[in-house]
């Protein structure tokens, strides 16, 4: 297999049959490693041959194939539909994406690329909430265009098998019974929708995140994930894995990991680990996509549920993703809860992923200013989420830089100053 000059400094791609063997035989927790490699293939004819090879193998697979591997093959098949190209950009191994013009005259030596990385006027600009499920060239060129210097990559440890546990089904049933809308879906359809979303083709594992960070260590920061609703032994194993992978944070999703932050016993174990290692906790707050758009099914993601742990562990930073505000039915749903907790607990932060509109709302901005909480607000995009709505990272960054509601100091704190202090703090 061949790659063109859009990719510099990367090892040669193995033959197509070896790539397919790796897609089939690698452990299930290595989801993206070889898919990322095959995305460097820019010859449409080679992709067609590769696609036929994957399809042939899938047709020959028996029912005993691990379902996670089957989804990996489906993701690889989808990735062969057309070459990934970003006009005018080159991806340099270990450095990131650069404009081709920035390397002209240098003969494209990757070892010299770092010396001409463009400076950003709001250094650093940190995207604190990124899901790395998109080709490297696209993701990193979007960072470059926006002047984003660093990105926090998030793993997601969710498991469809949790819906086989009677206690979780009973909890969902109780939450669902509180929803009174006359056009609501039958419970069985809701459960099917939840199960389908707990491990999708684009799911990102701890090992996936570690692989991305290893490739671009100066730009990317890894946060792992662990499901606290599983056994104590499982949580201990995952924490040991995250320490080995040198992650700086842990991503939690109370709504889809089916735990209440104020009640889950494994969180004491997790927070003790964070206190010892200096690790950050980043938790989803607000509603979520799919069936979890129903606020009743997202009650575990209320910001106020983190108060007991925030007060018990003041040295452990807790980041409330989406500022407690994501909801298509009730935008800003738990903004007030998030802000109240931030005001009371200086170790609680909020990111603006999927909620950057809050900084365009004069009332919300005034409330954050009055609470003196802009020192706890983090720039974040939920990338690649905005792309699905035709919104670029660059557009979000520029809107903050030109936001007349914010002072220059507030802009700098939000865009990167707060994140830098948080990520670089001593244990």
Commentary on this structure:
By secondary structure, this protein is α/β, with parallel strands linked by helices. It has 3 domains: 7-79; 89-118, no CATH class; 127-424, Metal-dependent hydrolases (TIM Barrel, Alpha-Beta Barrel). The protein is 41% helix and 12% strand. The strands form 2 sheets. Strands 4-5-6-7-8-9-10-11 form an 8-stranded parallel β-sheet, sandwiched between helices. A 3-stranded mixed β-sheet has the order 1-2-3. The radius of gyration is 22 Å and the shape is globular. Mean pLDDT is 91; it is low at 113-122.
Topology record:
Elements: E1 7-8, H1 16-25, H2 33-38, H3 44-60, H4 67-79, E2 89-92, E3 96-99, H5 100-103, H6 110-113, E4 126-130, H7 136-146, E5 150-154, H8 166-177, H9 187-197, H10 206-215, E6 220-225, H11 232-244, E7 249-252, H12 266-277, E8 280-286, H13 307-312, E9 318-326, H14 335-344, E10 348-351, H15 362-370, E11 377-378, H16 393-401, H17 408-424
Parallel strand pairs: 1-2, 4-5, 5-6, 6-7, 7-8, 8-9, 9-10, 10-11
Antiparallel strand pairs: 2-3
